[in-house]
Amino acid sequence: MARQLTELPGGRFLMGTDDCDGYPADGEGPVRTVELSPFRIAPTTVTNAAFATFVKDTGYRTGAEAFGFSYVFEGFLPPQLAATAEAVAEVPWWRAVPGATWRAPEGPGSTVTTRQNHPVVHVSWSDARAYCAWSGTRLPTEAEWEYAARGGLEQARYPWGDDLTPGGRHRCNTWQGIFPTLNTAADGHRATAPVTAFRPNGFGLYNTVGNVWEWCADWFSPDHHRHAGAPRRDPLGPPGGAARVMRGGSHLCHASYCNRYRVAARSSNTPDSSAGNIGFRVAAD
């Protein structure tokens, strides 16, 4: 696995953003200079096929399989299941679906047979770490992820520049239309896309924004990096917390409510959480 990683030289880059479209409460800013040692990172997120190999080799059971459910966007569910699956109060378009796992992303009766080259989903941070231990890799730090996702561009809003659709061309997989009721799929994908969909960034990495959220190694904090003395060389995030960092946004992000498919955007979730729009990519020293 590690032989397939892209080597990046590291060095100094400007992390974060003071963009007016950002979310200050998420701790996207201020812009600061960060220095990284050389590292390697996967050009794509881990696929269903790769995760299946891991499971076959180890017999691993994900958290969703152990808990008996995971979260699925209601628009992907058949009417009867959508009507019976418990809705999440704050975000009712998410449903807790019994039997939803990485093998059955929309619950019983669904399959990844035709999605082998799509990102594996319904994997928690703990599941991602287990895969890393098996493959001799690790999760990227948040700083490594952002440096890699930028593809060598300084302070651009997206991995390819500042225009979301340059020349009218879609460059990532996000929600098109009116969220959460109408997805026109103008970018070619209603749900997840293959991991090599769209053009790679300047470092040869695919889909670093949109498609699926990607777990990072760090604990999440909106202000740890603001503290005096916070590391600026190979930062690892705070020493503890309640949630782990996720980066990149997903196919369910839309400017009307979750404009987090920008390179500097951040979010988080508890380490045991899983959903149909969360995956990961691996890294190594």
Summarize the helices and strands and which ones pair or pack:
Elements: E1 6-8, E2 11-15, E3 32-36, E4 39-41, H1 48-58, H2 63-67, E5 69-73, H3 79-84, E6 86-87, E7 94-98, H4 125-135, H5 142-150, E8 177-178, E9 182-183, E10 213-219, E11 244-247, E12 266-269, E13 278-279, E14 283-284
Parallel strand pairs: 10-13
Antiparallel strand pairs: 1-4, 2-3, 4-14, 5-7, 6-7, 8-9, 10-11, 11-12
Shape: globular
Secondary-structure content class? alpha+beta
Low-confidence stretches: none
Secondary-structure element sequence?
EEEEHHEHEEHHEEEEEEE
Oligomer: single chain
Approximately how much beta-strand content do the residues carry? Answer: 15-25%
Strand element count: 14
* Terminal-residue CA separation: 13 Å
What's the alpha carbon Rg, rounded to whole Å? 18 Å
Q: Tally the helices: what do you get?
A: 5
Binned, the helix content reads 10-25%
- Determine the mean pLDDT: 96
**Major β-sheet profile:** 4 strands, mixed
- Order of strands, widest sheet: 12-11-10-13
What would your notes on this structure say?
15% of the residues lie in helices and 18% in strands. With 285 residues, it is α+β, with helices and mostly antiparallel strands. 46% of the residues are buried.
